[in-house]
Amino acid sequence: MDYDENMNVAGGRELARWLTGRPAGYEPSWNVKPTQPLPIAFTDHKSGDPRFEYAFWSLVPVWSKELKTRFPTFNARSETASEKASFKASVKSRRCIIPVTGFYEWTGPKSSRTPHAIFGPDPILPMAGLYSWWHEPDAGDDEGWHLTATILTRASAGILQTLHDRMPVFMSDELLADWLDPETEGDKLLLDAVSEASVPISEHLREYAVKPLRGDGSELIEPA
């Protein structure tokens, strides 16, 4: 599920600074998948201004020779991201928010999995993420740049414990400014703080089963 400009923004004026307008090429979606465009909000390193853009959903580190990795990078474990080669540079100063209206989780056997739609206490549910600018090796300095991103995860809490052992790290209002400030050096202490602050948010989530996800449209979030 994706960001909708017409919804009120949770987190007050601070988050609203980053969610002004819509990313270029915006199209609402209720079924975003890894490697597809994912809306992210972050602080521009050069100007210090808020930016709200689409990113390739799977973080590609700057040293990769191609726009893909040998292993999945659409999620990053908050417990180890500061130590992993693919993520540690982004933890340090390239952190972002992924603002969504909700997300899905699945239960049941692989042959017959049931999707569940999950929503937060406010219209916008901000998730903590990391981003990276990947540059095509043979492109010029001013072209061939790709914005890529990943969603941080942690051990599940609240109602999500009955659905999966992992959940996204939800962004708390209190830590938002530091998280999006590239001058705040990211480390495991910051990751742990953001992760723990997301637990109270998880206690206010709501979920319900929906029909198998086919195609894309608002009907996907109708109760089964």
Report on the structure:
By secondary structure, this protein is of the alpha+beta class. The chain has a single domain, classed as SOS response associated peptidase-like (hypothetical protein yedk fold, Alpha-Beta Complex). Helices cover 14% and strands 29% of the residues. The protein is globular.
Under the CATH scheme, the architecture is: Alpha-Beta Complex
Percentage of residues in DSSP E strands: 25-35%
Radius of gyration: 17 Å
Number of domains: 1
What structural class do helix, strand and pairing data support? alpha+beta
Helix content: 10-25%
Total helical segments: 5
Q: Give the termini distance in whole angstroms.
A: 17 Å
Helix and strand string, N-terminal first? HEEEHEEEEEEHHHE
Low-confidence parts: 2-11
Enter the CATH topology name: hypothetical protein yedk fold
For the residues shown, what is the average pLDDT? 90
Shape: globular
